[in-house]
Amino acid sequence: MIHPSRMAYVEAATDEQQERRGGLDLANVPLEHDYDIPLTASGIAPEKASELLAQLARKKIAATVSVPKEDAKVREKLRELGEPITLFGEHPPDRKARLRDLLAGVILAERAAAAAGGEDVAMDDAAGRGSATDEDSEEEEDDEDVPEEFYTPGGPDLLRARIAIAEYSLPRTRRQVALQRAEAKIPLRTHVKFRDRIKGRLRDFEVQASQPIGDRNISMVRIAPSGTLVAAGNFGGSLGLYRVPDLEQAQVLRGHTSKISGLSWYPGATLPEAGVSADAVNLASGGAEGLIQLWSLNQDTPLATLAGHEQRVCRVEFHPSGMYLASASEDATWRLWDVRRAGESGSGSGSGTSDGSDGANGAELLRQEGHSRGVYAVSFNSDGSLIASAGLDSIGRIWDLRSGRTVMILDGPLDGHIKPIYGLDWSADGHRLLTASADGWVKCWDVRKVQRTGGIGAHTSTVSDVRWFKGLDDGLLGTPPGVDESTGVQRPKASGSFFVSSGFDQKIQIFSADDWAPVQTLNGHTGPVSSVDVSRDGAWIVSGGHDKTVKLWGRDDGLNLYA
């Protein structure tokens, strides 16, 4: 572009001046009409060039094709196209790329057919079978980008269960609040002195017993409420009970054919004062075959089997009342079961499922969605009013069992986990929750504040399990410590004063609650530690790992925290 002040000089320039400057008038530019562009590059045959161009066009189209994100939906689409759903050595990303390439081929073929017929075909029509995948995938992506809550009417069994849970939890909540008000009057100096004594006891923990179990990795361990038995399962489906403190085998339980991924003791099981019969349900287990087994202590076969999950059952946990059982699964749901109706075949109680359909088992009350990927952990709070769920989508949710609504989402740009959550456990106070993740962090969330209140980089790799100490002096689960006669103030309680975690860094960590200070590191496993638990009297910590052993940790004098 020429500035107006220079325009006069340009217009006044003569042809002779332009020629002298070496310029060329646009009208005098020579034109060439007899030109030829070779169809092939040097050394490339026309057929090869066409093939390369076709591949380039196919790649361009493949880059614009949307495919389902879930591997199960990718397999379904491959089946619709008449292709093998999986090839030897093929992984999910490879399978997704193969589907994208196939859909690109379909689009190219139909465009070529339309061009041969002289028709002008729209993009969506040319996509043919691929267009449905594109639309479905776009809808899925839109749904994932903008989460939307929905509610489905439940059946009468679920309504009765919610009422029963409310009637059970409300008096316990009132009692818990009264105890916490009394604890708030305890001087801080008394708390600090009491916690220091507990830390001193925990620092003396060493391995007291180690028992190899089977020829597969240990997947889950849980210690009985009495502290006299340990339930342990492995990757091969073997499940057994072992005596404390020598870890000698007491019983073998036969019923699972694949990995034991969830264990939970019935509330009060093995406690004489609880009145739970050895012939009744004492233990629940979940397996990778998708089944939940209920066990007594007097037979080696299940009392009942709960079926309904479409994929692996990752965790199971009894409600504090003992009437219900929750299970988490890789089918992206958690379910609520009526233990009293276990073993009944489809009686219609499944009408309380999230999609309104009948459950596969008469004991199923609720099938709850809400996670985009597999649900790995579930946990009830101490009064039984809330349940937390978390899993492979790195997000946790807290649900009100009395209404079915979401109370809190455990996530945030700065607060949430960045990798899958594998462990959940509530504090004895009923309003704080710990989450353990593959990102190496254990984080604490407070329902009352609706925010994260603490976090620890507990392990250098995946945190596989976390358990908050719930002691004998808990106000709801045991006997409160009482009032100090000299001061007239309630004594501090040990329950909730610390928690333990296990990790793939081969370590078990003990942390003090509230100040989140490390207390003790237990070393002894030669492989990743997959599970950990602590007894109610604080005398024992049990762990299991990929070294195929179950280990029992405690003090050499065998004293518990209350001695």
What distinguishing features does this structure have?
24% helix, Pre-mRNA splicing factor, alpha+beta, four-stranded antiparallel beta sheet, U6 snRNA binding, Methylamine Dehydrogenase, Chain H, repeat, 9 helices, U4 snRNA binding, 563 residues
Describe this structure in words.
The chain has 563 residues and is of the alpha+beta class. The protein is built from nine helices and 28 strands. It has a four-stranded antiparallel sheet, with no helix packed on it. Strands 2-3-4-5 form a four-stranded antiparallel sheet, with no helix packed on it. The radius of gyration is 33 Å and the shape is elongated. Residues 119-135, 137-144 and 345-360 have low confidence and may be disordered.
Write the layout of secondary structure elements.
Blueprint: H1 4-12, H2 15-20, H3 46-64, H4 71-80, H5 92-116, H6 123-127, H7 129-145, H8 156-183, H9 188-202, E1 206-212, E2 218-223, E3 229-234, E4 239-243, E5 249-253, E6 260-265, E7 283-287, E8 291-295, E9 304-307, E10 313-318, E11 324-329, E12 334-338, E13 364-368, E14 375-380, E15 386-391, E16 396-400, E17 406-410, E18 421-426, E19 432-437, E20 442-446, E21 451-456, E22 463-468, E23 498-503, E24 507-512, E25 518-523, E26 529-534, E27 541-545, E28 549-554
